[in-house]
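Listing S7. Sequence submitted for prediction.
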Amino acid sequence: TMDEGLNKAVVEVFVRLYEKGLIYRGNRIINWCPTCKTALSDAEVEYEEQDTSLWYIRYPGADGDVVVATTRPETMLGDTGVAVNPEDPRYTGLVGKAVTLPIRDREIPIVGDAYVDPAFGTGAVKMTPAHDPNDFEVGRRHGLPVLRVLTDDGYMNENAGRFQGMTRSECRKKVVEELEELGLLVKIEPLQHNVGTCYRCHNTVEPMVSTQWFVEMAPLAKPAAEAARTGALTFIPERFTKTYLNWMDNIRDWCISRQLWWGHRIPAYYCDDCGEMVVARKAPGACPTCGGALRQDEDVLDTWFSSALWPFSTLGWPDQTEDLAYFYPTTVMISGYDILFFWDARMIFSGIEQMGRLPFDTVLLHGLVRDAQGRKMSKSLGNGIDPLEMIEKYGCDALRFSLAMGVAPGNDVRFSEEKIEGFRNFANKIWNASRFVLMNLDGMPADIRAIGPSALDAGDRWILTRFGEAVEGVTGNLEGYELGLAATKIYEFAWSSFCDWYIELSKQKLNGE
């Protein structure tokens, strides 16, 4: 990933997209991990269902009170408005009026926006543009101020007033207590809620306004989605086509800057004297505007930004190499379904944008290997399996066959040591059958094809027929990407037809008069 040639490709793509206006630097809502202290893309946020509550809070107003429902009372300190649906008869007379933000005693406007679902909660939504992506978009449409109340490490900041320095959970508890004292907490309802967590550390992610680098995705996603709609790009199993299109059609701009120590550094340079910013393939010697010293952006790129270029960066691009001409595009990309958005989709739109055509025409998605209880293998659970230990114990062929046998594309498989042991027995069966054949080759023609049809008895013709059927079936399964069915046919032919029947039939002819 960090080789000189691949770094050259990464910088080239960054500069090209920047020059086309598809990469920009802006202050926008992003996913922020307070533990890792870095931005995350939408694909790097894992959602898990958690038991929480829905708090109903009364916002007093001279023209009428408004009750809002929220899952995060602590963020109300950053509210800069309340939104209602303009078609909701309960609130039509309040649009354009104001209410008072409890605890902070600030007046905030009531705005009408079609985004609000009248059927959810009370039909009125608190607007915290600095800490919610939907609120951010509504706020932009209505000119609401953006007031951030959290620090990068997840504590309340100076905008939170007397709650400054508290953790999110401490602040939530205090805010709810004060609302109760003020008589403004209407009710609390239990709620099961999807909460975003960081895919690295698994702690809760904060939507937060931050200055980051972004890729404008709509122009890149459109041809990538069209390729799937026209059939130029095929997904196996086919059901993942809908998943892919749903992601492409609803994609947000991609946050590509990361606050990490390791990665491709962003090729942007800043002049502290005059404020000039330069994006360049090579570091400029001085500021082109004032001649002052330049410093490079300290952020690095999302690891998937460089991985997205894999089908052509590994072949020497941007140089027009023989490898690039011969190997791009390829045909089939085999991938776990868990990286469909992380990697596959990004290779697709990057290939179309930089090379002018798809990097492959078929994406074969396999499942994950889970433990015997169906849980994903992880370091924290301690349920991972070292394949080298399994190979040492049962043999490589047994491990491989156990992973292929009975597997359907896109479906997970449960790891079972007993299953590997069973296929070790299958490998032994083939070994013993081979020894039996080799032991009985004395006196046979050097070229087995010299044996004519007249020398074949009913058993010989039967096994050749079964063999032909097995070859035809396995070939069809492999060409249709049904690897589990192919393995099953191999198993059934070798164990049952050949070993259990044909070898036993042959013993009479080999050992008889």
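Caption to Listing S7: primary sequence and predicted structure tokens for the chain studied. The mean pLDDT is 93. The two ends are 68 Å apart (CA to CA).
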